[in-house]
Amino acid sequence: MEKRRINIWKLGILLIVALCAVSIAPAATAHGTPFVIYGYVSNANGTECDNPNVNITNMDTGSSKTAENTSGSNCYLLVLANGTDLNASETLRFEVTSPDGSQSKIVECKVTENEVDDGGRFDYNITLSVPSQQTWYFSTNEASAPIYDGADYNKTMTKGIEGGMDTYISLPPGERVWFYPDQVADCNVSFPADTWNVSYWVNATDFADSDKQINTSLRGIDSTGAELSGSPYAEGYYDIKSQQNLEEVTGFLNPAGFTIPEGGRFAIEVLWAGDANGSLELYCNPPEKHSSHVTSPSSDPGYPIPELPTVILLGVGLLVITGYVAWRRRRRE
User: Fold this and answer.
1) 294 has which bridge partners?
2) Distance of alpha carbon 29 from its chain centroid, rounded?
3) Which of 44, 102, 99 lies closest to 296 in space, CA to CA?
């Protein structure tokens, strides 16, 4: 708590300095009002990332600026001039790295009319990833086979840069949606025991659904769509806290090791309470918020195909076994 107070104090100082800079800039006074962007940066393990490097580029104009920060805080701040540096509907690209460059994140988002009216994008917090981690973003796109026929809705997740259309899925009480990677496993892919991070946005539409439960689980299917033995590999639970409002569901799933066979997929299942009164809206890319997503652990072997070192080790192992079998046969002869 004390660290956050210090951060807010430093952020206030940065804001005053930046606003002064904008106010004396001829372009700003002539063309637009300030547009403030600030937030906090966290490491992949959830700890604070002090002195982050945050570069923000307007993809429509090509203009790029570096946010202000301090060595003793994980907050960042950039003040732009609305009408000069940006306009509503333009896309901003956030490129964020840790001071040592070992963790990074790229995020894209569109500037909305509401943000322009409010004077900025506030509390836009970003969690970094390590190189071997992968992040899949939820979408409302229909998933093609293989899919699990026990799910009420089958949607895809896409890797890459965050950001997309503001869409949602409506789950009636007791129904479930499965989100699959948009690629099947190219070979058997084994995930060791480690932590998966899930974060998505929901709105419980009925006022009476306070404390109703959402179940989130990590699952797997084979190339025919049949659920794999041992699935679900991990589950988490969340109780609605602010019905009829957008709220973030976050959780850590901690499975034991599991293997997705060639042609199969892992999936994230979201199940809405069967005793709920109204539907649950699950938002993929809500305005002014980060996208709904799941992030694999740092031990991710490189789904949908293991990284080259893993493939090499597997190949060497097979060669050793083959050579040993041949040697044993020769000895018998």
Assistant:
1) 136, 198
2) 37
3) 44
Topology of 135-308 in CATH? Jelly Rolls (2.60.120)
pLDDT score at 11: 52
Contact 21, 104 (CB under 8 A): no
- Architecture of the domain delimited by 2-127: Sandwich (2.60)
Residue 26 host element (H or E): helix 26-31
Mean pLDDT (the chain, rounded): 86
Asked if residue 299 lies in contact with residue 191, where contact means CB atoms within 8 angstroms, the answer is yes
Residue 199, strand partner residues: 250, 293
Give 72-111 pLDDT, tens digit per residue: 899 999 999 999 999 999 999 999 999 999 999 888 888 9
pTM of the model: 0.73
Span(s) in the chain for CATH 2.60.120.260: 135-308
Gap between the Cα atoms of 317 and 95, Å rounded: 40
- Find out whether 104 and 98 touch, Cβ atoms under 8 Å: yes
pLDDT of 23 > 60? The answer is: no
